[in-house]
Amino acid sequence: MPHIGTQDNPAVSTIRILLVDDHPLVLEGISARLESEPGIEVIGQANNGQQALEKAAELKPDVVLMDISMPVMNGLEAAEHFKNDQPEARVLILSMHENREYIVKMIQSGAAGYVLKDVSSDELIRAIQTVHQGGTYFSAGASEALFSEFSKSDQPEKPDTGLTKREEMVLKLIAEGKVNKEVARALDISVRTVETHRQNIKQKLNIQTAAGLTKYALEHNLISL
Amino acid sequence: MPHIGTQDNPAVSTIRILLVDDHPLVLEGISARLESEPGIEVIGQANNGQQALEKAAELKPDVVLMDISMPVMNGLEAAEHFKNDQPEARVLILSMHENREYIVKMIQSGAAGYVLKDVSSDELIRAIQTVHQGGTYFSAGASEALFSEFSKSDQPEKPDTGLTKREEMVLKLIAEGKVNKEVARALDISVRTVETHRQNIKQKLNIQTAAGLTKYALEHNLISL
DNA sequence: CAATCTCTACGTATTACTACCTAGAATAGA
DNA sequence: TCTATTCTAGGTAGTAATACGTAGAGATTG
């Protein structure tokens, strides 16, 4: 327990942690490891979300290190409550679920980070420090799960559009909002040629309108917003 | 400067860093600070994205710490190239831009993290360690910018377009690829009215073409892909 | 080398969109 | 209540896009 009036860590204040997990063993293990770390102090433990909220209200932890799956009140609900009732507390999720949905939900519920249980204790400590400083932390597996779609969505599959290069080029320019005349100028070809391309494109893609073309181009990442 | 052949850090291999920034002063400062950190080694520097790619190909850094705004080839483009050409290198963006668009784009371009230039050197080092271990790091400001909408994203915010409800409706239908006649039928109004709406919309948004309208609608979440 | 594909370009007619107006009815706000 | 806004609708003209053709030059390929 913290004492007052004597010399504590001078410059860096200790990060006060509330540990929440329904497995006593996990609780103990992590607690022991964290306690051995200077600058980190485990000020309390809880077995479920309900308890966590109560203890947090009393202890005012800096960081709440919490599991997701728990009885009584799971990490998701608990995170919601933390966001509303005790926004000062930074919630760091410690989970074994690598599921994207989970992670996104946790973020939306206000969690500041998400580490998988397979991380090293060093990494866990780094995560704690990060969220304490206001940052966001995702461990490798989590960030992968979280951003895999995100990042792949850049140029995912270039699914064979059936369009020729030239047609794609024309489509791209049209989708960007250029009129035929401008496209023609840009590609240094006749307006009629552009029209021909345009027609062929629409025929190939079975699209009728200009707006449809733009939508198509966006869907297929020929252009970006 | 690094030496070879003598005792380096034994268990933990050194994190080899390539620093990229177009400001020599920044380069020097960060480099000096990082060099003082055990476990981190600045193996090279570059002034722009182009150089960064070349040097990286040669030096094979673990982490590329890179600015966004640079001449010749900016961080965004460079990150793209890294993703494609040297995916082993983890790209950590060091930027002063707190803009959400920037951050999202960087992630989509394959960056493993994004730290604002106002972070402490301790935090920067933590970020480096994080991305090196495969994690994702966002500093406080960045994660805030990144997830503020995300968290709210239950209803993906509708920024005031200045359009009336009816105009939005028309715009939506147009953006979906409907021609005026279809819009008119859908809303049970005259084609002329749709045309009027269309004109007003274009005037309000300062957009000239139909394709532009679609793009606008997509950008502003009036419709989704 | 003939067949195919791609890119280029034009003709003609029709339809759609655009620009720039006016204007009435309904509604919301000061 | 007066006013501004919104939604409705139209006139007139010009510009752009579409539909449906044809067709030559150049590259690719079986």
Automatic annotation (TrEMBL), chains A, B:
Top-level taxonomic group: Bacteria
Gene Ontology BP terms: phosphorelay signal transduction system; regulation of DNA-templated transcription
KW Zinc (keyword) present: no
Keywords: DNA-binding, Phosphoprotein, Transcription, Transcription regulation
UniProt GO molecular function: DNA binding
Sequence positions bearing 4-aspartylphosphate: 67
Domain Response regulatory positions: 16-132
Transmembrane segments: none
Domain HTH luxR-type: 156-221
Matching PANTHER family: NITRATE_NITRITE RESPONSE REGULATOR PROTEIN NARP (PTHR43214:SF41), TWO-COMPONENT RESPONSE REGULATOR (PTHR43214)
Protein name: Response regulator transcription factor
Lineage: Bacteria, Pseudomonadati, Pseudomonadota, Gammaproteobacteria, Oceanospirillales
